[in-house]
Amino acid sequence: MDALKTALQPLQPITNNLPAPIRDLGVSIIGDTCYKNLILDLDPTDSECLKLAISKGLGIGIIGASSIVKVPQILKLVNSKSASGISFLSYLLETSSYLITLAYNVRNGFPFSTFGETALILGQNVIITVLVLNYSGRASMAALFVAVLATSLVTLFSPNLLDMQALGYLQAGAGVLGVASKVPQIAAIIQEGGTGQLSAFTVFNYLAGSLSRIFTTLQEVDDKLILYGFIAGFTLNCVLAAQMVYYWNAPSAKAKGKMKVPVSAQTPSSGTSSATPKKGPSTRRRG
User: Fold this and answer.
1) What is the pTM of this model?
2) Which end of the chain is flanked by fewer CB atoms within 10 Å, N or C?
3) What phi and psi, each to the nearest 5 degrees, are found at residue 73?
């Protein structure tokens, strides 16, 4: 580390003269002390500041990736107009879990970098859930789902309607919901014999994101409820990723059922006569 510090020193004239907007952004992300140690002094030996900077970087990266993480899934649904391989129950449970977790983080005042993706994924989940219901022929349920979601949103974010103690209990339940939300999707893949319209991009990004969130939570959030939820979620995301690899080129059971079986040409029966019938005697009068 000392050798690295020495190698970085020639860059100090640059880091000490950064534009004010960039300097202010850096201070707002890692704080005055860590900004001075890591950016102004270029001292990578400060392990606590280094871990904080890595955590913040991962958090910002997760939030950025989460803005598009489920866009491929949405596009697959819209283009295929089929909800094959997608579990409505899985998305219902996950959306409920994310809504509670978002309210819990906001009302506790946790850093946005530790939960920002929750809001972005929540919005995409709502779109996917509505599409799944619509393509499953349950458009009326989609309208009911949106209405219940709006009511829950108002209740969870209102201190007058729900106190922090009750919200804490709900957060404990949200961790269970988040884990349980993966089970119907895993079961649906097994039942279908394939991943159907499930997006590989979404599955593998979830896997990487949940692993990164374990690290950022350990560094920035002293809350075991959130930590255990991420650990459990990562475990089941591993199962989904393994299924995605296993069924990579396998058609679903429904797709197999639609494959046409060639019909063999019928051969004429040996007992059937192919001779042309003889003409009967003519009744035409001869002239």
Assistant:
1) 0.67
2) C
3) -65, -40
